[in-house]
Amino acid sequence: MDHCKSCFQPLTIHNSGYFSILLNEHTKLEEVLTKLYFQKKENICFTKQYHDKSELKELLSFIRCELGDLASYKGAISIEGNETNSEFLSLHTIYEHTFHEKTVNLIKYGQFESYLQPILNVATGEIYGYEALLRAKDQSIFPSQLFEVARKTEMHSMLDKKAREVALYAKSKKIPKGVKVFINFLPSTIYNPNHCLKHTFELVEKFNIDPRDLVFEVVETEKIENISHLKAIFQTYRSHGMKVALDDVGAGYSTLDMLTKLRPDYIKVDRQYITDCHLNKESQTFLQGVITLAKELHITVLAEGIEQEQEYDYLKNQGVSLAQGYFIGKPSPTPLLSYKVATSF
Questions:
Q1: Do 325 and 304 form a contact (C-beta atoms < 8 A)?
Q2: Same domain, 53 and 151
Q3: Residue 331 has pLDDT above 80, yes or no
Q4: Is residue 153 in a domain?
Q5: What is the number of alpha carbons within 13 Å of residue 283 lying toward its C-beta?
Q6: How far, in Å, CA of 127 to CA of 203, rounded?
Q7: CATH number of the domain bearing residue 211
Q8: 78 and 190 part of one domain
Q9: Which residues lie below 8 Å from residue 37, measured CB to CB, with a gap of 6+?
Q10: Are residues 53 and 143 part of one domain?
């Protein structure tokens, strides 16, 4: 198998060691490194010893200031200064690992859990399932910060995998059989579906989870560039008896056209169309179009981000099947097991 970001091993930033940077065609690089007293090695790279992490940070900050975008340059961190045994990575990756070391170590070694937000069956008023949302047990780091650092350091695949692990564990321990759990995933972290998802399927078997209770939900803030690849991921999940969902429909690249191309089992309408939907005519037009198309394609519609009773009532009257949001219940480590429609938010 070709190397891919899914198999990327986190970079270790040693307390002291050697910082090497490969030569390239940019003459300014050589000028900057010479100014910083890097030593040239056999026209291959420049190397400099650093004595503590603060010195390494100073070097990286100066290089970034002088060169701007670091993604075009490659470097390595090692203890012995032998560049032939070092893996050269983007200087951008090294920079992010160095300056976000606390969060990087949390992703590598920290403890995580799933907060479970209830999803309501609108027709019956019963709990249909839960969305599993990753949380670090160290609550000093916000989830948004966690995922942003993971993206910058190319550790989003590792974090995505851990999210699936704790979600499946939560399902096995806290959520009754027959009640679904929606688990987020990033298609860009799955290079080869059969290989990358093998661990997930093994956990499903280990925890004795009914695959029919699992819905894997595309959380795609990135552009969906490869439709056939995403279809292959969907097919892999479905071949193991699981369902798939497309999130944030109506925002970014989750367009109505994607519904026809991908045919997910569920769609989540982006919250911009849910907020004040009982008042906003444009949102109502969009929602009616989504609901009509979804019925034609046999796709279940879930409205998320519901915060007002009026929004809930409007969506119920329009025939939305599933509802999620603070009006229903907030994410919690202990799942809400029953629901009664509130008279006010």
A1: yes
A2: no
A3: yes
A4: yes
A5: 17
A6: 25
A7: 3.20.20.450
A8: no
A9: 48
A10: no
- Residue 254 pLDDT class (50, 70, 90 cuts): low
Do 136 and 237 sit in the same domain of this protein?
Answer: yes
Query: Does residue 80 belong to any structural domain of this protein?
Result: yes
Which whole number is the average pLDDT over 243-271? 85
Spatial contact of 307 and 344, defined as CB atoms under 8 Å apart: no
Q: Of 50-54, 100-104, 113-117, 209-213, where does mean pLDDT reach its minimum?
A: 100-104
Assigned token pair, 5: 């970001």
Residue 11 carries which DSSP code?
Answer: P
Q: 299: which DSSP letter?
A: -
81 and 201: one domain? no
- Nearest to residue 274, comparing CAs of 245, 251, 297? 251
Q: What is the pLDDT of residues 73-123, one digit of tens each?
A: 999 999 876 665 668 889 999 999 999 999 999 998 989 999 999 999 999
Is 168 among the domain residues? yes
Q: pTM to 2 decimals? A: 0.87
- pLDDT recorded at residue 226: 78
Q: Angle of helix 143-152 relative to helix 156-174, nearest 10 degrees?
A: 140
User: Are 212 and 123 part of one and the same domain?
Assistant: yes
- For residues 224 and 187, give the distance between their C-alpha atoms in angstroms, rounded to a whole number: 8
Quote the Cα angle for 171-223-292, to 5°.
Answer: 70
Mean of pLDDT values over 242-247: 94
What residues make up the domain containing 251? 111-324
DSSP letter assigned to residue 164: H
Q: Which two tokens stand for residue 187?
A: 């298609």
In terms of pLDDT, which residue wins out, 64 or 26?
64
Residue 55 confidence (pLDDT) above 90: yes
Q: What percent of the chain has pLDDT over 90?
A: 64
List 31's β-bridge partners, or say none: none
DSSP 9: P
Query: If we measure between CA atoms, which residue out of 253, 332, 246, 333 comes closest to residue 294?
Result: 246
The Cα 336–Cα 329 span in angstroms is 7
Q: How many domains does the chain have?
A: 2
DSSP 59-111: HHHHHHHHHS--TT-EEEEESS--GGGSPPEEHHHHHHHHHTHHHHHHHHH--
Q: Is residue 193 part of a domain?
A: yes
